Amino acid sequence: MTALIIIGIIIAVIVLFVWMTYNSLVTLKIRVDEAWSDITVQLKRRADLIPNLVNTVKGYAKHESGVFEKVTEARAAVVGASSPKEAAKADNMLTDALKSVFAVAEAYPDLKASQNFSELQQELVDTEDKIQAARRFYNTGVRDLNTKIQLFPNNIFAGMLGFKQREFFDVDESERATVDKPVDVDFSK
Predict the structure, then answer these.
(1) Is 183 in a helix, a strand, or coil?
(2) Quick one: CATH architecture of 2-180?
(3) In this structure, are residues 140 and 148 in contact, taking their beta carbons and an 8 Å threshold?
């Protein structure tokens, strides 16, 4: 009789542990999904601002079409990204392209003085700050989820319950040199 009680207690502890592990993994997964949604909202917001910025700069610098094409391609890549790795790569391309737009703007004092350009530039700065905050929140959630999945004995149950590790939203090492490098602008053409 005591053996049955001990076995019942052990089974109850295991069921309770699996239940608590499952619920905590679901909570972390939902937080990561929410954080990813925040990133996509901010990336979309920035992508929506870019055509206005490009059109404003185009009015002053018509001969800089290569810069504008690069921005348009990078914007399309950001909007079309479906994973954190793709979004991070496209985000880096867009950041690099925007540096070129602002470098072009430096050569046109009338453009820099334009209220429309200043407002768009401020909106982009605000959006960049929001993207960075969303990125940090997402990466924190991914770290917490991945840690929980890898810890013993959670790793035994996490796989059986269908939980998988998530990718961080980060610059990969092959692209770090591009991100850290200043923009080259040549007005001699």
Answers:
(1) coil
(2) Up-down Bundle (1.20)
(3) no
CA distance 68 to 52: 12
Helices marked H in the chain? 2-58, 65-80, 84-106, 109-113, 115-150, 154-160, 173-180
CB 89 within 8 A of CB 170: no
84 and 167 Cβ atoms separated by less than 8 Å: yes
Lowest mean pLDDT among 106-110, 159-163, 171-175: 171-175
How far apart (Å, rounded) are the C-alpha atoms in residues 90 and 73? 9
State pLDDT tens for residues 26-43: 999 999 999 999 998 998
In the prediction, which pLDDT does 69 show? 82
Domain locations along the chain:
2-180
What is the pLDDT averaged over residues 111-126? 80
- Candidates 53, 108, 29, 41; CA nearest to 78 is 41
pLDDT (0 to 100) of residue 189: 40
